[in-house]
């Protein structure tokens, strides 16, 4: 549901999306004076238990690389690893408030977004940051993605 709310620090946010009592997350896709986001939400806030998921890479459950030189395959495996880590904490992608993408080439971002969009509804997009890095812990990794989530108390 979209509603107008007054924040304690003052000012009116033009549009807020509150996801309801289960997650207690509120998304602000376009705060006043900030250009609307494309493919992410500017602000996500909530109450509950904080969950931090370490950066995940494209290793399968046996520790083998998935998708050598294939950003789409690596992105899918990385999101599968994130899903499994979230599940271990009792969370789902619906609980994610922030994703940080570390990529060795910004040309990999469309593959990352496609994998993300297969896991996360477009009306529940988290806050996001994408950073191009010179390298990751192993040269065959094209990306590493970390997540923050909030679970209900």
From TrEMBL:
InterPro entries the record matches: RutC-like_sf (IPR035959), YjgF/YER057c/UK114 (IPR006175)
Signal peptide: none
SUPFAM superfamilies: YjgF-like
Matching Gene3D superfamilies: RutC-like
Pfam families in UniProt: Ribonuc_L-PSP
Protein's name according to its UniProt entry: RidA family protein
Entries under CDD domains matching the protein: YjgF_YER057c_UK114_family
Taxonomic lineage of the native organism: Bacteria, Bacillati, Actinomycetota, Actinomycetes, Kitasatosporales
Species annotation: Streptomyces vastus
PANTHER family on file: 2-IMINOBUTANOATE/2-IMINOPROPANOATE DEAMINASE RIDA (PTHR11803), PROTEIN HMF1-RELATED (PTHR11803:SF58)
Family according to the record: Belongs to the RutC family.
